[in-house]
Amino acid sequence: MAASVWKGAITFGLLSIPIRLYPAARSERIPLHQIHRVCHTRLRQPLYCPTCNRIVERNEVIRGYEAEDGQYILIENDELKKITPRSARNMEILAFLKQSQIDPIYFDTSYVALPEKDNEKPYVLLQKALEDTERVGIAKLAMHLREYTVFIRPRNHGLTVHTMYFANEIRSVEGYGKIDHEVKVRPQEIKLAEQLVESLAEDFDPRKYHDAYEENLKALIEAKKKGKTIIEEPAPKRAPVIDMMEALKRSVRETEAQKQKKRPTRAQPAAERTRRGAA
Fold first, then answer.
1. In the predicted structure, residue 267 carries a pLDDT above the cut 70
2. Is 132 helix (H, G, I), strand (E, B) or coil?
3. pLDDT at residue 275, rounded to an integer
4. E-state strands within the chain
């Protein structure tokens, strides 16, 4: 099992649930390093001090805040420990929210919470209570030199913790949310668009989705290993400009036709196939 990133307890009321947090997901990427074109050596970025004119060791490094240009307030690890809030050990639930009220834009990093040994019952009790009430716990959690607000929600018979973006971290873009007030859409167009949405509706299956760029990069690496060339990815064709109503109607027809092709044909009984073959 992967190493835990936080150890402490979820608390609410007088109940305490000792847990550990583990990363719930991570990006999978093929690492590409910076290489010197001349000698094909991997380039590195060492810790270099321009004043001492030498490479420094890790044990010589401390943290510092730049108060003025080139002037730093130095901060020792012991000083950081003294100011660490109690949320570094206790994830106290402050309130329970309706899950439907939370905009997914506030979800940041996800973690899986597992109970410590012999503490499974209070863990399951919280999980069941959240499932039955369709609510999410909101709590404080300090780790990695920062205090986070987190959501604790039930998922797949367990508890998942998501760090939250704060309101001031959500970016606003000029004009967003105002376009629908400026554009007039006819009811027939909305109806056709909804029909197109329904024709493409399906249950979510994360296994269907993949990173085409990553797969192409793997193929490129394998091809270069064998001294082969690769086939260039075809450029997307730009759709012709046509009337929007006609585009919606055509899209619905084509989507329905594709669905018909994907539907499996009814298997013909063996006896019937034999009779037809004899005829």
1. no
2. helix
3. 46
4. 6-12, 15-23, 48-49, 54-55, 63-68, 71-75, 90-98, 107-115, 135-143, 146-155, 158-164
Alpha-carbon 223 to chain mean position: 31
Q: Determine contact, residues 147/87, Cβ cutoff 8 Å.
A: yes
Domains and CATH numbers, the chain: 6-28+83-169 (2.40.290.10), 174-202+243-261 (no CATH)
> Residue 1's pLDDT is what?
65
- For residue 247, the SS3 value is helix
**How many whole angstroms separate alpha carbon 227 and alpha carbon 158?**
49
- 96 within 8 A of 136, measured Cβ to Cβ: yes
CA separation (Å) from 227 to 54, 220, 221? Answer: 42, 10, 10
Q: Buried b / exposed e across 138-176, counting CB within 10 Å, b at 16+?
A: bbbbbbeeeebbbbbbbeeeebbbbbbbeeeeeeeeeee
Say how many C-beta atoms besides its own lie within 10 A of residue 104's C-beta. 6
Cα 216 to Cα 230: distance, rounded to the nearest angstrom: 9
Cα separation, 12 vs 62, in Å, equals 37
Q: Residue 234 burial by CB count (10 A; 0-12/13-18/19+): exposed, middle or buried? A: exposed
pLDDT in tens, 194-219: 988 888 888 989 888 888 888 888 88
Q: Is the pTM of this model over 0.85?
A: no
Closest CA to 111 of 204, 14, 254, 7: 7
Interatomic CA distance for residues 131 and 220, integer angstroms: 46
